[in-house]
Specification:
Layout: H1 2-20, E1 30-33, H2 42-46, E2 54-57, H3 65-79, E3 82-86, H4 89-95, E4 99-102, H5 107-110, E5 119-124, H6 127-132, E6 140-143, H7 160-169, E7 174-176, E8 193-196, H8 198-204
Parallel strand pairs: 1-2, 1-8, 2-3, 3-4, 4-5, 5-6, 6-7, 7-8
């Protein structure tokens, strides 16, 4: 089991290096997205992430959101990780996060916060949405669904070939989301950043 995790970690690190060669220096090559159900201890996972990666803390009105956000900020500073708070600029300011990640539906709201954070990213769930975001002022877009995914919200996968075409043609840097893991990351890393939930949790999450 440990050998499998070590092998998967090596693959993710190699894909991260490939992504980092073409992304702007301000952007981490990999974003670890938290989930209230699928990432039970995001702070513990963040402690094991490689330096220079990033964390997107997503919460659904979690009663401990401020506490977890502050703990993540501490770990991210220690590990030199970028921290973004999903769709909660007030929490991002309160904990001193690097930025905010916005849902596509909230992109207009994000305009009021431009210039307040070092990073602003946004979700895109289709090629049409990615086209709309080309000149919207965001630092990067997380485009899904890249590969087949077990996520309940996953749409039909774009597949690596179509995804690479979209990312290569985009004026805004793109991260691949959906089904991205140690085995698939290398297929998009030459043209996109890496964003994942289970794909990162399985490698860097707490040992059971």
């Amino acid at each position: 089991m440990q050998e499998d995790r070590n092998r998967a970690e090596g693959k993710l690190r190699a894909a991260a290096r490939a992504a980092g060669r073409h992304l702007p220096a301000s952007l981490p090559p990999v974003l670890y997205l938290t989930d209230d159900h699928r990432t039970p201890d995001p702070v513990a996972t963040a402690r094991h992430l490689p330096r220079g990666w990033g964390v997107v803390y997503r919460h659904q009105d979690h009663r401990h959101a401020h506490l977890i956000g502050r703990r993540l900020r501490l770990v991210c500073r220690q590990r030199h990780l970028k921290l973004l708070i999903a769709n909660d600029p007030a929490l991002a300011l309160a904990v001193g996060a690097d930025g905010v990640h916005w849902p596509f539906a909230e992109r207009a709201k994000a305009r009021r916060w431009q210039g307040r954070f070092a990073l602003m990213t946004v979700s895109a769930h289709s090629p049409d949405q990615l086209r709309i975001l080309q000149d919207a002022g965001f630092d990067a877009a997380l485009l899904s669904t890249a590969f087949p995914s077990q996520s309940p919200s996953a749409r039909a996968p774009l597949g690596p070939r179509r995804f690479r075409q979209l990312a290569s043609a985009s004026r805004v840097p793109v991260y691949a989301l959906g089904g991205v893991n140690a085995d698939t990351a290398s297929r998009i890393a030459p043209v996109a950043g890496i964003a994942a939930i289970e794909g990162i949790e399985a490698v860097f999450g707490p040992r059971t």
